[in-house]
Design brief:
The protein is mainly α. The chain is built from 11 helices and no strands.
C-alpha cells in the first residue's frame, strides 16, 4: 500500500520524466519488480514475463505525455496497460500450458531437489487458483504483486471497490493454509529480476521511440 510520502515522490518522478524522458527510469525502477511479478505469476515463463513487462513500459513511454497525475499511484495506469496487453495476448493465443521446467529455472538454483520443490509448489498453487474465476485470480494476484489499494485495483479492472474486497477476502478464506505457499511462490518468482538490468533495459526502450 502506498503512503502519502511515496505518492509525493511518484508525483516528483512523473514531473521530472515529463521534462526529461530519460527520468522515466525512476518510474521504471520503481515498478519493474511488481510488473515482472504480475506477469510471471500469470504466465509462469520468464522470457514471456520479461517480454510483456517490456511491452508494458514501452506502451507507457509511447503514451506518457498523455498521462496526467491525478493523485493516484502511477501503478493504476501502468497495471491497466499491463492488463490490457495480457487480454490482447490471450485473444491471440490459445491456452499455453506452463512448462514446469521453465518455472524451476526461474528459481535460479542448480540444486535438483530445490528445482523439484519449486515445480511442485507452482503446480500446487496453480491447482488452488484454478478453483477460482479468472476475475478472482486476477484480483488476488494484483493485490499480492502491485502493492495497490483495493480502490486502485477496482479502477484497473473496472469494478467497484466493495466487489473487489468481497472477492479478495472470499478467495483468501478459501485458500486458508495454502496462502503461505502462494506468497512464497510469488516471492521466489519475482525476486529474480535483477535491478542492475533495469535502467539499461529502459534506455534500449527509449531509443526505440
Amino acid at each position: 500500500m502506498m503512503d502519502e510520502t511515496n505518492l509525493k515522490e511518484e508525483e516528483e518522478f512523473i514531473s521530472r520524466a515529463k521534462e526529461n524522458l530519460e527520468d522515466f527510469s525512476l518510474l521504471y525502477d520503481l515498478y519493474f519488480r511488481r510488473m515482472f511479478a504480475f506477469f510471471i505469476t500469470r504466465l509462469g515463463n520468464e522470457e514471456d514475463a520479461e517480454d510483456m513487462t517490456s511491452q508494458t513500459f514501452l506502451k507507457a513511454l509511447e503514451h506518457f505525455q498523455e498521462y496526467t497525475f491525478d493523485g493516484k499511484p502511477f501503478g493504476v495506469w501502468l497495471f491497466r496497460i499491463a492488463r490490457n496487453l495480457l487480454i490482447d495476448r490471450s485473444r491471440k493465443k490459445k491456452f499455453e500450458r506452463v512448462d514446469m521446467d521453465d518455472v524451476a529455472e526461474i528459481a535460479g538454483s542448480d540444486d535438483p531437489q530445490e528445482k523439484t520443490h519449486v515445480k511442485l509448489l507452482y503446480e500446487k498453487v496453480e491447482k488452488h487458483l484454478s478453483l477460482f474465476s479468472p476475475e478472482e485470480r486476477e484480483i488476488i494476484l494484483l493485490k499480492f504483486t502491485s502493492g495497490l489499494k483495493f480502490s486502485e485495483i477496482a479502477l484497473i479492472i473496472g469494478k467497484n471497490e466493495s466487489t473487489v474486497k468481497t472477492k479478495y477476502f472470499r478467495t483468501l478464506n478459501t485458500l486458508r493454509g495454502e496462502l503461505g505457499e502462494l506468497i512464497l511462490l510469488i516471492l521466489l518468482l519475482s525476486h529474480l529480476s535483477s535491478p542492475s538490468i533495469h535502467s539499461s533495459h529502459l534506455h534500449a526502450l527509449v531509443l526505440t521511440l
